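Entry:
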Amino acid sequence: MAIEKYRLPLLDVEGVLPILNKIAVLGGLDDAQLYTVFRMLETEHYNKGEFIFRQGDAPSHIRIVRSGKVRMVENVDGTAMELCEFGPGDCFGETSVIAIHTHTASALAVEETELLVIPREKLFALYDSDPKLFGMLALNIAREACRRLNKTEDIMLHYALGRKSENGWKQND
């Protein structure tokens, strides 16, 4: 895989821990647990327009945007639909890693982007080496998946009931 040449171990503890403290899937971890996660991190660098992964690819990492911007795009019947964008401090790919299903969308670097990544194999190694930390991470990922599902349900409900105008949602005629 071409990205391997970009993957580097992470050395900047003081620069990264404040980012990790803000990530929902790392919520509730104590300093020792955060440091364990830090030791698992690697970095990836992407140029503008470069795909991080494509729809249908097998999941390999949990990714956190350190700098830059990532756009999620889903191909629906040959049409690219922009789903959302992630910026510094945002996390993505975590549900695919835990659920072990292929990516349902593609991730595209909108500008030069640096990601902090937790490789799937390192995450699952925690199951044996630190089951408490693994359980906390799995629970946090499940919570984040539920939060996103609730947000999606709200969007679908608003779409079904009406359309959004400048002043809010209006009922369809």
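The longest strand covers residues 79-86.
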